[in-house]
Amino acid sequence: MTEIRLHNSRTRRKQPFAPLDAQDVRMYVCGPTVYDRAHLGNARPVVVFDVLYRLLRHVYGKKHVTYVRNFTDVDDKINARARMLQEGGDTRSLNEIIRALTDETIDWYHADMDALGALRPNHEPRATEFIVQMVAMIQGLIDKGHAYAAEGHVLFDVRSYPEYGKLSGRSVDDMIAGARVEVAPYKRDPMDFVLWKPSSVEEPGWDSPWGRGRPGWHIECSAMSHELLGPAFDIHGGGIDLQFPHHENEIAQSCCAHPDADFANFWLHNEMVQVEGKKMSKSLGNFFTVRDLLDELEKRMPKRVAGEVIRLVMIKSHYRQPMDWTEAAAKEAEATLRKWARATENVQSEKIDQRVIDALSDDLNVWGAITVLNELAANGDGSALLGSARFLGLLSEEVRAISQATEAYFDLQKLLILRAEARKEKNFARADLIRKRLDDFGIQLVDQSATVTAPKFEVFKIEEVIQSLPPEDKENLLGQEEYVVPRIFNNKAFSDRYQSFVARKVLGELE
RNA sequence: GGCGAGUUGGCGGAGUGGUUACGCAGCGGAUUGCAAAUCCGUGUACAGGAGUUCGAUUCUCCUACUCGCCUCCA
Question: DSSP 3-state assignment of A399?
Fold first, then answer.
């Protein structure tokens, strides 16, 4: 069996991965707080751990891997967002708004992550559905002397857990010296963190032995991983920024609540996302949601390609290195996909190259795998290329289609035939005129051989053309439909109508 | 101040104690009515210093620089 080696943050080195139970390999990844569209930074761990999930499924079998990723749907950021909506005139109760907001955000998240080719985890628990388990775990911590109630809060006593700080390599005393912790009078130690806190009447809250309240941020992952994966499991993942305090606190809670188990065996952390070399932040104005980026890319390429472009840019950086989103990287990724699409034209079978598995098994060396794919493309081994690319979540049918040079384009096809004849007769004036006129309408012709020509659609230009058309032409083309330009590729009916419209017009001019 | 990661050719990005992946760009050529695409060829880089060694980009130490975390953050 392939040996997987992973960099374990816990030991700070690469180690051979051995599951606790090869029949049930278990992985938990910290998911998003659902109050807004997922941004690029949210997407990175999704894609990174998707690659790992695929690898585990390949090595241990699809039925022998359990992947859990949570939704944090109780959080002060959510409350704040809901209040904002309320102040903006929303008349529903805060709780109704919160429910609607989190539901909608989860739908968005699914749509966006699906677009990136990420497989859905086996379980996607919502924090609010595990309050009972959290309360039980908190009570257990109090009973064992690791937590205490004070003024409606329950706090974890960090001094009761000598290992606290081990994952992130810091000591409680050092951190206090840093003195950036909230000092609350009811805390025994400044580093003590909240397990439970009181809620106002308006805020979401649940009854508990400590009064009506809601859980602190960290306890949900401890409670849900325990419920779904057991007290000990194999891999716990998330962004490096979660290493402290979130994961440190999870470890403290879980290990104290279940002292006989070892909680997560391997800890994996992905590095952060940058944009054009700079940290992505709202203040720098380089903050993108996945949806923003997809919309932008979909202006110039089919939808599915846009998703794979983002995916490829994301996985080509090693997960423990900062990932830089640049326009150049997106272009390069697109070109790579086209190249592979061409190399797999007419390929029917798929097989996975073992060298791709071997590369990924070495701490997810995706670039090593891509090197293999490039080699397969160069050597013309289409089925290994297709199978291996698919394994990485790339080269879906829609993406392969971008390479296809010939396709029936109705009336447009007639025009292309006319032009091919003109070229054959060396009537280049006529051939170039056809190309020029189509270009005026945003349809670019690319000759691939003496007889094969591929049309490409320039969406911006088409938008301009449409805006400048007489009203009746416009209405004929658009019909009653709501026309959104970036979606031209997704609207076959419109696309066909437009091609026919242009082709007839140009044909008319030629006669 | 504390903790951590990193510094490889123009850019991105692997890897190795001695034979310099790969991709993009560039350059040269082929092909092409033109445009685009495609194909072939081409690149001796490993932050600086000291040490270990027959030999270090690869190991050790130091220095410099970059980045992240320490506060909500993926």
Answer: helix
